[in-house]
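Standup, Tuesday
Yesterday: got the pipeline producing structure tokens again.
Today: sanity-check two examples.
Blockers: none.

Example 1:
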Amino acid sequence: MDELVTTVLGPLAPEALGITDGHNHLWIEPVASADPEAPVLNDEAAIRQELQQYRAAGGGTIVDCQPGGCGRNGRYLAQLSHDSGVHVVACTGFHLRRYYPPHPMLWQMTAEAASDLFVGELLESLYETQDTVTPVRAGFLKIAGEASFEQTPRHLLEAAAAACRATGCAIEMHTEKGLAVEAFLEFFLAQQVDPQRLVFCHVDKRPDFGFHEAIAQTGAMLEYDTFYRTKYDPETAVWPLLEKMIAAGLETQIVLATDMAYSHMWQTMGGQPGLAAFVTQIRSRLAKMELAAATVNNLTGGNIARRLAVPHKKESHS
């Protein structure tokens, strides 16, 4: 079987994804959640235009990290991908509790039922596209950890682990500034999840090289996305950390991203730096660091593409 990445418009070879922002948000519908500051991204024309700018700059793919029930809409993701020419990989899974309406379905489910839901969205269709001519499938699991393991819903962690084992699909995990990664990793290893299927997100907010080195050496991947966030001082944190990880030979364990969930980061909505800056600023800076071309390509797409790729049966044309 071929190893392919499931995009919203169908499976693709990992090398076809090109330059890939490994953790972002393209569409977030308003939700009556417990968080009054929950982000909303639903200006279709502005999002389409920004995706076209990303494509014109050389961008190939966006990995969308908004799970169902808290603002995801696979119909719009598919339409935006079709209109812009940018590949989009959608997700199933769960976000932080505060981004859901009161009494969210997932929190009432058993681990087995939640796993069945995740597997269904990975193998058949997102629930919001089940009645469409061409259903959209999720390409990975996005889950969210709270500041501690104990605060995170264990039954949903178990569900994600079971879905990962059943499908081979990767898990991207939101962390609260890199906290409790060691505990989450220990849990997933005990659940027989291959560490090669794990991506821990936002961990550059905890720029301790020893911590990053130890996690990377287990086979898990680390996602960095504070390049535009001045409060995390990227010039003294993420950029030096990235250089140390590359020097240690761990560049294949890193995925770069921008995590632009808020409209003030989108140029077409009056903000900065915009989707295209992943190419024009981050990738361009890497290209000036005297790195091997393969290293630049891996950091800005190749690494995450290989994590997202899973075996697909060849289609019969007889």
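Example 2:
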Amino acid sequence: MKETMKYSILSLLLTAALVTGCKEDFITKEFTNGVAESNFFKDAKDVEQSLTAVYDVIGQKGVYREAVFVLGSCPSDDIDEKTGDTGDYGFHFKNASDFRWFPDNPFSRARWYDAYKGIFRANTFLEKVPPVTMDENLKKQYLAEARFLRALYYWNLTITFGDIPFFTKVLTQPEYADLARTPQATVYQQIEADLTAAIPDLPVAASNPVGRVTKGAALGFLGRVYLYQKKWQQAADASQQVVALGQYRLVPSYISIFNGQAENSSESLMDFQSVGFAPGYFTDASENSIAAMWSPTIGWANWYTPSEESKKLFAPGDIRRKSVLIAGATPADSIDVDGTGPKPFPSLPMRTQYFNNANVRKFLPEGKIMAQVDNFDVNYPIIRYAEVLLNQAEALNELGRSADALKPLNEVRARARLAPVTQTAQASLRTIIQNERRVELVYEGHRFYDLARWGQLEEKLSKKGFVKGQHEFWPVPTAELDLMKNLTQYPPR
């Protein structure tokens, strides 16, 4: 059960060994209460606790909670922020959407500090664990999991900030402060190396506790990493290795992936395990689903509003439309976007004044009172099988194997009850695959980065405020520039 792993994380967070200070001085606090000291790593129990601390960063604000949507979807053509004037964070969402990108946006800042926190923990683990006396096979698996997590955190950093400070060992504060930007290509090389080294020692999905890294997760993520670099053959090969594992398949019901009914399913290579633990909205201690920030029953429903363009993406008969959008009704019930059919949510006032007759349905917990923050416990799919199939289709088409690309593409379309694609002209099929990817992954935080790697940011987003040479990456937090004298700002000031 997913509760097992998250409970261990929450318990471990209460120990002094993992307490850190404010984000700006995390470099001086991370592991200084004992976790990084050699005398902490005595046995397998200590090793497992430390690995849990590396995992914990996945669910923090800057990684797979709010930031994944604010940074990956809000600036894209899938989201159209409205007034941005509600709550303490509304204008930060709107600034992200409108390309008013300041160094101290709390979500880009959280991405920097949280991801580097994970890297510090992973580096410490990888350095301290090898001498520990314990079962060698288990040790190899744990080290492989830490390598995967370091790769995951570095990937989140480099797609957000481009060239970044880079290190693979435990650093002192002066050593960290002396770092400058490392080219993104070098960062990607290490990500590939970590994943490639991890894969042989990871178990297949069925043999690992829920929420932990598996061979399938590492292969699926490696395929994405290759795809982002246009390494088409490697991306196709890694994706095919996921298929060949025989562990994964698309679940029949698309909406079940996002409403809590099919968590950790056959489609999930890796989920962020949300348990609805939330002492408040947007707190660092929360382990709840990020959908709490766009529930149509709360005052800031305008923070994550579907664009008019994205609402028109769906072809006639595409069942995904009803699965990702909901609408306000009279009297104030939530219904599917067509205005008919079941009402999946309890009758509560819908903040229809905040959105254009539709709101994002993904990740909303059906059948629960959404006014209660603790009820948002739907997992976020970090890597799912549908993406692997789309990665494979894109890579095969770019290799000139357009006919081979149809099989994985049409597998995704079949679930949506759409007719199979037969087009094999490469340029035409490229457009079809890109559109299918947008529809399948819509509102999940992928769109901005897909546009970036396709070279379409200026074409698609200039009307929202995107300026070439200024908005490909986020600026570095101000405190880091003050600390790191060799670090330059983006864009150059």
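Quick observation on example 2: The two ends are 50 Å apart (CA to CA). The first helix runs from residue 2 to 13.
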